[in-house]
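Fig. S4 source data, part A: sequence.
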Amino acid sequence: MATDRSGEPFGDVAAGDARALARAITAVEVGDDAARAAALALDWPDRARVIALTGPPGVGKSELANRLAGSLAEAGLRVAVLAVDPSSPETGGALLGDRVRFTGDSDAVFFRSMAARDGEAGLAPEVPAVLRLLAAGGAERILLETAGVGQGDLAVLRLADLGIAVTAVGLGDAVQAAKAGLFEVADFVVVNQADRPGGEAMAASFRALRAGPVFLTSARDGTGVEDLRAAAEVELEARPPLDRSGTPEADGSRAGAPGPAIRLHHVGIAVKDGSRAAELWRTLLGLRETGRYRVDEFGVLALFLAPEGERAPVGGLLELLEPTTADSPVTRFLDRRGEGLHHVCFEVEDIHETLAALAARGVRLVDREPRRGAGGHLVAFIHPASAGGVLLELKQADDGPPSD
């Protein structure tokens, strides 16, 4: 692996040399293991934040990335764009190129495209190393644009400080799009190509289906892009950066970090009628009800089931969640997906300490402070974007399961 004038790997990159940065990325891309290791060993500056744009092909992500990059640069930020393209079947390289993909001011924004190759979720395996090079090179905002491969894009969100799911008018209704899960767990949803008829109606549908922000943009003429940039900056300012102190794998995870969970406590299932569902499980597997609780803060009636004679089964309880209000999160879940798996709950020794440790590592939390759940126990939720698309609940370990 080549070194810079001082003999240090990637020293010129840290000094802001754009050509050195381009050469370093190429070295990583071609499979130089020493270059990849050296890139992953670089410090990640606190100012560098990653914004991921993902979603189905053909929704205008490239145009939106161009517009958003320009808006960020005009706001005085140093910007880089990393576009992960489908691989060429003949050369293995990016099917589209830098000159094709980027139409903005190349002096204001560093742009690089790379092929997905054999990477999962539409990501090249070298993406984490390249992101670290871009950050070390001085980029304060890095836009990570992916090829768009559906549910696999959840892995993209785990690499980002902020995840934006992009769709477009004319690609089906919001209900069908939401079934993929991506539009539920992303921080922002963008309905692009809003200059077409039906944009307002599609955005309204998404707002009814999810709690997070929904933006209406037209990358073609720039409509709504400035609002999107401003909201992204506010959100990034409000949340801690991801913990990138370890060596990330290709999907953004970090090996060797001990899990905070003691044991599985229960699996939550959303149902329309708790009593009827409890009878189904009694008939099906002989499970009996061990307790039920009305939790007004969450707008649910929670029924806990266990095998006959086992109040705290080693394998965990079954929780049935029946909504009690029209605005309950479980009501929205049922409207989107119907009855089925809602969340998985683990007990932890100290929920306050666990939440603080997870936040420090950049894990996306629904609750930064615990709340009172069923039976009065302290609970908190981890966002699906940080848990492989699964909503996780943490419960303070105490003297046992909920009791009547």
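Fig. S4 source data, part B ends here. The chain has 14 helices and 15 strands.
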